[in-house]
Each structure stands twice: as C-alpha cells, then as structure tokens.
Trafficking protein particle complex subunit 2 (Letharia lupina), 192 residues
Amino acid sequence: MSYYFCIVGTRDQPLFELEFGTSKQGGDGVARFSQEARHMNPFIVHSSLDFVDELQWTNNQMYLKRIDQFASSHISTFLTPTSTRFMLLHLPHPPNTAPTSQPMPNSFPPFTPYTSVPPSTSTASRGTSSSSSTSIPNNPTSPQTEEAIRQFFGEVFEVWLKAIMNPFASTESKIGSPVFKQRVVAAGRKYL
C-alpha cells in the first residue's frame, strides 16, 4: 500500500507532507504512486477537508477513521484539539501489478494510478488466502488496517505535540525538522 500523509493547519494549508510505502509483510517502504497520482494526492486530500469540517461537529472522537474515497484511494483523518488535521491517503497495491511510470494523458475522471490486472488474476489471488485479504497491504477497509492507522496517528500526534511545544514554533508554521520526519517515517514502518 502507498501512503500520502499530510498535516493540515486550521487555515487549510499543508504544514507537513510525506509519501511512504508499506513496510509490513515484505514491503520495502517505498511509495508506488504514479506520476499523475503524486500530483493529484494533495488535491484529493484537500477535497476531503469538507467532510472533516462536517464530521468534527457530529463526532466527539479524535480519530475519524476512513472519511472519504476517490477511485481506489481512501482518506483517513485524525483531528487534534487545536483543529489541526492529520490526513492519510492510502492506496492499495493491486495484486500482481507494477505502478505505471509514465503519466496517462486524459485519464480524468477515471483515475487509474496503476496498470490494470485481468479479473481472473485478481480474483484468484484474493481467494487463495483469507489472511492476505485482511492484511494491511491488501485491504484498506479491514479492521486491522483501521487499528494500524489509529496507532500510527496516535504516535504521530505525540511527536507533533513535542514539536509544537517548542517556544519558537507556531501551530500554523510548516514543520521542517528532520527529526520530526524521521519519527513519522519510523511510525509508518512500525504500524503500516
């Protein structure tokens, strides 16, 4: 699964952005977004902010779970007490596919970040093992994935709190600390 993590401030500006891939079950930790998807990810996350604004008043939880979906991309959100939003776009890797290396012209609205797979191959590989269909890299809607994302957000929230406790930092300024980035990457490796 490929991930695009973004911290969005109260004025809807990105404060931190990071792309990474899954490290669980043999993943190498590299994001496998196509070139087109890399450009679309910030727009997809930004379009989901309307759902966050609606849900924050009807839900008293900090972790809002999976709030939106665009094509095969899913967006999960964590809302801090200061209304800073942690947004995680996760895109599952289709089985037996390789990401496309060239942008696909005129592919919008059918957003296709990966090459297609014959239906017989994808259904056969899904039906062979029940554990692989519920694993984090294969199923973005499973309870295991939801729990892993919740734990990832919890750890990133702790690191973010430590970063904004700096008296010279503002909650609305970009986070450029390499230590912060390393700890977010470590949390991604640990849980996702």
In short: Helices lie at 35-47, 49-55, 119-128, 130-133, 143-164, 178-191. The chain has six helices and five strands. Strands lie at 2-8, 14-21, 63-70, 73-79, 85-91.
